[in-house]
Amino acid sequence: MARDGAGVHGGPRVALRACRSARTPMVVGIVQPIVVVPTAMLDAPPAERRALLAHELAHVARGDCLLALAGGLARAIYWPDPLAWWALRRLRAHAEDAADDAALHTGIPSSSYAAQLLAVARAQLERAGRVAADGLRARVRGVLDVRRIRSREPDGARWGVPRLIGAALVLATMVTACEARSSEGSEVVGSAQQASGAPGE
């Protein structure tokens, strides 16, 4: 199946593809994003389909793929730095939370959406093992959190948190790079001073 779907809140139109080999819904691409869904999802109840599509379209509207790419590159460059790993984990967690809020905003019961997340977890366990599905535990708890259920409207301030974390991650890597260059420069100056002072000793 191939069709076009409208973006979230008047955003860009996003292509929708159904794929038999897909285990879970996902967004592919940055410039021209495509939402890929498992073929089996087409047989799901309308409320579940709307929630899952709202989740993926929220990722598109927020630019989460680009943020994840930038964060992944920063982590690859500064992989020994625990801050880079922590920031990327928080970036992904907040992105999923915001997308879950968009899904809940469609009106689907929290218990039904939590059941969908558990189904996704089972699919991820089959494909990539336990590590890939562990992050869904916190999402299920969050979806069923009474304090979160109190409002279905996605929080604009909450949606800005991932961007702040992404900016902090980029800033941290820039500071680390500047410190490294400064340290190298100091070593060069120190070596030059020692060399120039050697004849006079």
TrEMBL record:
It holds the Pfam family Peptidase_M56. It comes from the Bacteria. Residues 14-132 form the Peptidase M56 domain. This is M56 family metallopeptidase. It comes from Nannocystis pusilla.
